[in-house]
Write a structure and sequence with these properties.
Blueprint: H1 9-24, H2 28-32, H3 37-50, E1 56-60, E2 76-81, H4 84-96, E3 102-107, E4 120-126, H5 135-144, E5 146-157, H6 163-173, H7 176-179, H8 188-195, E6 200-208, E7 214-221
Parallel strand pairs: 1-2, 1-4, 2-3, 4-5
Antiparallel strand pairs: 5-7, 6-7
């Protein structure tokens, strides 16, 4: 049993991630907007295609809100993030750009969503899975709040298995705590979760720019899913 004054590794990891992204917040758009834009655009388009008119879309790890303006006006968007500084910038973006489709932005742990079951038509997680300390738990929560027939849209980097890129990612992994994400993040961390669910089916899996470094996944929940 851990000492009463000792936090669990997962708690420490969550605190480290929150601290890292709060540190990145003032310069996040400057560094992460342009190179990640093709993936954000593809993920937003996939979410828009999956959602019905006036459909409810949850954006997990909304950050500074770079995806929000890419989502159509006919949707009802709820965003969550663990970082208060990030959400402050997202709220400023919503006000400045008059993003009426954004109905709410909440400080919330992606691994413990404060929403009822089957609340959303689409659950969108852009560049999130390699950031959170417990990806399977986040996937569980996203699936729980997704309606039968709904879609989970993931955009993420998955590490290479061999070659120069694999060696580079392994070297960068040593700085994962400071960076706030895991450069060495295998597809199996998500793929095994999907394969274990009888009510999940992959509709699309494709690499996107830049340099096909990122992967778009669209996963549908069966209409009779548990």
């Amino acid at each position: 049993m851990p000492h009463p004054g000792t936090a669990r590794p997962e708690v420490l990891a969550k605190r480290a991630s929150e601290s890292a992204y709060s540190r990145w917040a003032p310069i996040y758009d400057l560094i992460f907007d342009l190179p990640f834009h093709p993936g954000r655009l593809a993920a937003a388009a996939a979410a828009a295609q999956a959602a019905p008119n006036e459909g409810e879309v949850l954006v997990v790890g909304v950050g500074t809100g770079l995806e929000l303006g890419l989502l159509p006006k006919n949707l009802r968007i709820t965003g969550i993030d663990l970082s208060a500084p990030m959400l402050k910038l997202a709220r400023e973006r919503v006000a400045k750009e008059a993003l009426g489709q954004v109905k709410a932005l909440h400080i919330m742990d992606a691994g413990a969503l404060d929403f009822p079951d089957q609340r959303f038509d689409v659950a969108l997680a852009p560049y999130v899975m390699s950031v959170v300390p417990a990806p399977a738990r986040v996937l569980d929560e996203m699936w729980r709040v997704l309606r039968p027939g709904g879609q989970m849209v993931l955009m993420n980097h998955f590490s290479a298995e061999r070659g120069l890129r694999a060696r580079t990612e392994a070297a960068l992994e040593k700085s994962a705590g400071w960076l706030g994400w895991h450069p060495q993040f295998p597809y199996a961390a998500v793929g095994d979760w999907i394969a274990a669910r009888k009510d999940a089916s992959i509709l699309e899996r494709r690499a996107v720019a830049p340099f096909r470094l990122f992967t778009l996944l669209r996963v549908q929940k069966a209409t009779g899913g548990a």
